[in-house]
Every structure is written in C-alpha cells, then in structure tokens.
Here is the input.
Amino acid sequence: QVQLVESGGGLVQAGGSLKLSCATTGFIFANYVMSWYRQAPGKERELVAIIDTAGRPANYADSVKGRFTISRDNAKNTLYLQMNSLRPEDTATYYCVPSFGYRGQGTQVTVSS
Here is the structure.
C-alpha cells in the first residue's frame, strides 16, 4: 500500500535551516507530480511547493520563494524540501502529497524567534 514517511523536522532558531525528506513506497514515484503542504494549528492547509515528474520545480508559495527548494530523487523514491532562512511563521506540520492526494503523518517544524 501507499506509504509516505516524512522526516527531518525539528526545532530551529529563526534564520536556521532544515532539510525535510519524504520516503515513499507503494506507488511508482517517478510517475507523479509531488507537493509539500504545511498546516499550522488553527490555520488552513497551505501549498508550499510543487515539483514535476522530471524534477523541475513548478511552483512555490510566495511566502517561501527564495528560501525553500523542492527536489526529488526518482531513483530513491524520495522527495526533499530544503528550507533556509526559516521564520517563526514557517512553524507547521509539513506533509508530502502525491498528485493522487494521499497524505503521510507529516513532520513537525518549529521555528523559535
């Protein structure tokens, strides 16, 4: 069955960096557009970044442009999100989502000011 296992989250000070990973199994990873979403308590889910099947980033949220980079390794069935210059408003649970809509358990990112 489909499994999405996000990792790499944690507590970091403002201005710091984290790299999230999403290991996938149960579907042909290379065939699907992949996205990172995030959701903070009391807020709506927000699309962070999308990447196409060939590894070309297709879109970033305005709030993360220039700071976050989405990438993928189709040989490893893994999606990544490099997050630099983190801000307290980036605090959220981050999820990787394939284009067919499945969702994993997420990884928590907390940025302290």
